[in-house]
């Protein structure tokens, strides 16, 4: 994460101490800015378009129960040597025959080839100088401005998309937020979790699943391509509204597999679900019954950055597991973030250490009703999205079984 200062204009992003920026957005070239609106608290909302490089066969063939997850009938990804939008050689992005990526035809996410000078050094393309500069060093150049679309102009994106509608994912997100709004950004852990869902389609196929701390809803959207019902949960009316909009933007993906995504409020600090019909994204009694009667999968990504919230997540997981009628599996994605602290005068990862201690406590829980089995998931499955799958990214599986 990086910390961002108030900009003189929207197109001149500078850094300040009270905002954080996801590595996904920081390291993705921002050749084109596509801002679609301001949210209710005045934050710019951007729209990114992702292209899925898979064939229709992969919807039914990949991840079949008992099948070979590494063998999927898909389109061959373009070669990096041809200047395509695939992962360049040595970039750390593993295609392995198929890829879900943001390519050159995406909005706001473009992959550019590195330009080298005659000596082999990186030739950096400088940002255009502001036209208002009183002492320009050279000929005047146009100032870069974000491209702003009104909501009714959303079809412009559809005209740019190549291939069938099932090859496109569109996600609204912010670019930098205060810490309490980090769910409005896209994080690497969500991309890793999406990779795993697409790899383990047999685990999710036809099930009822619930995501905790869904944020932009990206992982829930991916889960809905194979699951029957996905409860996409978080807190905050503005965040849930953004999530609902992302679900609507990608309804074609869930519809193709017959899946349904329901955006709901779920506060980890409260024992009961909100059933007040006057509250947006509240639960009906029918939905609560469906949740407890049919859910078999719980999943969450990048929600372990604050010790108090981590405690609340694990209490919520335990509470839900005890209320579900069926045995369930939880999939958790976390990034082990290293920080230098004055208290230790050393590089530490306290949030991750607390996460691990919560895993151990859950595994040792003995209440005579459920037994929790915790095991790491090796991140050797194919990489389906273009991002840096660093060693600090981890997946953990928790299996809740009745004590016999």
TrEMBL record:
Name the residue ranges with Low complexity bias.
Answer: 79-92
Q: Which Pfam families match?
A: Methyltransf_16
The keyword S-adenosyl-L-methionine is annotated on this UniProt entry:
yes
InterPro entries listed in its UniProt record:
Methyltransf_16, METTL22, SAM-dependent_MTases_sf
Q: Which GO terms describe its cellular component?
A: nucleus; protein-containing complex
Biological processes per GO annotation: methylation
> Where is composition skewed (Basic and acidic residues) in this entry?
66-78
| Keywords recorded for this protein, A-Z | Methyltransferase, Nucleus, Phosphoprotein, S-adenosyl-L-methionine, Transferase
Question: Where is this protein localized, as stated in its record?
Answer: Nucleus
Q: Please give the catalytic activity noted in the UniProt record.
A: L-lysyl-[protein] + 3 S-adenosyl-L-methionine = N(6),N(6),N(6)-trimethyl-L-lysyl-[protein] + 3 S-adenosyl-L-homocysteine + 3 H(+)
A GO molecular-function descriptor: protein methyltransferase activity
Spans annotated as Disordered: 62-101, 116-144
Task: Please tell me where this protein is predominantly located.
Answer: nucleus
List the Gene3D superfamilies hit by this protein, alphabetically.
Vaccinia Virus protein VP39 (3.40.50.150)
Family annotation (SUPFAM superfamilies): S-adenosyl-L-methionine-dependent methyltransferases
> What exactly does this protein do?
Protein N-lysine methyltransferase.
According to its UniProt record, which protein family does this protein belong to?
Belongs to the methyltransferase superfamily. METTL22 family.
Quaternary context: Interacts with members of the heat shock protein 90 and 70 families; these proteins probably are methylation substrates.
Q: What is the protein's name according to its record?
A: Methyltransferase-like protein 22
- Origin species: Rhinopithecus roxellana
């Amino acid at each position: 994460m990086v910390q961002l200062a108030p900009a003189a204009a929207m197109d001149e992003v500078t850094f300040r101490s009270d905002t954080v920026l996801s590595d996904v957005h920081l390291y993705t070239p921002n050749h084109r800015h596509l801002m679609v609106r301001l949210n209710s608290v005045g934050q710019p909302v951007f729209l990114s378009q992702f292209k899925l490089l898979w064939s229709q066969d992969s919807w039914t063939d990949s991840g079949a129960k008992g099948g070979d997850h590494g063998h999927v009938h898909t389109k061959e990804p373009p070669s990096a040597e041809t200047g395509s939008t695939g992962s360049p050689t040595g970039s750390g992005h593993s295609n392995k025959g198929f890829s879900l990526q943001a390519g050159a035809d995406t909005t706001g996410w473009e992959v550019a080839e590195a330009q080298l000078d005659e000596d082999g050094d990186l030739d950096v393309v400088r940002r255009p100088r502001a036209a208002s500069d009183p002492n320009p060093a050279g000929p005047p150049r146009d100032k870069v401005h974000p491209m702003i679309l009104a909501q009714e102009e959303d079809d412009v994106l559809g005209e740019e998309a190549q291939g069938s509608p099932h090859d496109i994912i569109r996600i609204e997100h912010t670019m930098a937020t205060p810490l309490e709004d980090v769910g409005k950004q896209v994080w690497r852990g969500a991309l890793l979790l999406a990779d795993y869902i697409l790899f383990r389609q047999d685990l999710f196929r036809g099930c009822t699943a619930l995501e905790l701390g869904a944020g932009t809803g990206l992982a829930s959207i991916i889960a809905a391509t194979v699951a029957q019902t996905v409860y996409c949960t978080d807190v905050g009316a503005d965040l849930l509204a953004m999530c609902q909009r992302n679900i609507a933007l990608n309804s074609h993906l869930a519809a193709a597999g017959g899946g349904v995504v329901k955006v709901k409020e779920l506060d980890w600090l409260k024992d009961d679900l909100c059933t007040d019909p006057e509250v947006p994204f509240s639960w009906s009694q029918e939905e609560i019954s469906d949740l407890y009667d049919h859910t078999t999968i719980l999943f969450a990504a990048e929600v372990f950055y604050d010790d108090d919230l981590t405690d609340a997540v694990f209490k919520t997981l335990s509470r839900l597991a005890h209320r579900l009628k069926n045995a369930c599996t939880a999939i958790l994605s976390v990034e082990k973030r290293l920080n230098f602290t004055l208290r230790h005068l050393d590089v530490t990862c306290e949030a991750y250490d607390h996460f691990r201690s919560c895993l151990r406590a859950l595994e040792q829980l003995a209440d005579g009703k459920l037994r929790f089995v915790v095991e790491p998931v090796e991140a050797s499955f194919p990489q389906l999205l273009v991002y840096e799958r660093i060693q600090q990214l981890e997946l953990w599986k928790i299996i809740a079984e009745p004590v016999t």
